[in-house]
Amino acid sequence: MNLDVVTMDPALLLEPFRYGFMVRAFTVAVVTAIVCGLLSCWLVLVGWSLLGDAVSHAVLPGVVLAYIAGAPFALGALVFGIVAVALIGAVRDTSRIKEDAAIGIVFTTLFALGLVLVSVTPSQIDLGHIVFGNVLGVSTSDLVQVLVLSAIVFVVLVAGRRAFTLFAFDPAHAHAIGMRPRVISAVLLASLAVTAVAALQSVGVVLVVAMLVIPGATAHLWTDRFGRMMIVAPTVSALSAAVGVYISYFADTASGATIVLVLGGVFAVSYLFAPRHGLLGRVTHRRRPGRAQRAAAT
């Protein structure tokens, strides 16, 4: 790391923002992080964390086939994201196989197909960037694509937040009051597929699951109210993305992996120090009643 960074030279600290590719990287990382953080709230509560992993990996063959056909990467990824969800549902509903096993079968098979296609496809670009992310290589057209996809998902999630939340907490009650849990589930899964596509540019298919799980899990440690969780998770996600991109510039590390490491660090701190649900917070909370009882006895 440059020693000038340690001395807090203001000019050097602002250096990343002088370059267009870094401004685009910050924008893409923060925008996708906000949407991933928002969606992760429901994924954590519904218990779809593994499904997020499945969809994010299953889009890889769609990306490669889109490249071969000369179509936008997002189109191929979106198609295969929806195909993956449909296959998981079909295997689960038409056989003895349980959902977790169906997820494992579908996503590993599709991801392996994607890796095979990557290995045999002659390419002038590094398709491996789709696997591990290349946020520093985002073009203006990529930026527009991410902004549009993220905006669509954000609007859907905000507009349907009450239905999604009721579905997450009590699907039986949602059905009883006239809602259609299958439709709500389908919309949420479609949002997951689109979000995974948008996040490809930031962290790639391997690490996108972290963006879809860690923010919601972190927020869940800090608050019991879902409304607050919907604020905490996107905030944590966006700040971690910005800090990760910033650190990667000076440390010369992979941006996607650095973003996830920052997220993991925030989760570790939350796991230890969150007031009520952190490890140390729970220990302190357990000791307080004992002290109160001893004080009353004396």
UniProtKB/TrEMBL annotation:
Q: Name one GO cellular component term.
A: ATP-binding cassette (ABC) transporter complex
The organism's taxonomy opens as:
Bacteria, Bacillati, Actinomycetota, Actinomycetes, Mycobacteriales
Per the record, the major location class is: membrane
Kindly list the places in or outside the cell where this protein is found, as annotated in its UniProt entry: Cell membrane; Membrane
InterPro entries xrefs: ABC_BtuC-like, ABC_TroCD
- Annotated protein name in UniProt: Zinc ABC transporter permease
Where does the chain cross the membrane?
Answer: 21-45, 65-89, 101-123, 143-160, 181-199, 229-249, 255-274
Report how it sits in the membrane: Multi-pass membrane protein
Pfam families recorded: ABC-3
Sequence similarity: Belongs to the ABC-3 integral membrane protein family.
What are the protein's UniProt keywords?
Membrane, Transmembrane, Transmembrane helix, Transport
Q: Which GO terms describe its biological process?
A: cellular response to iron ion; response to zinc ion; transmembrane transport
Domain of life of the native organism: Bacteria
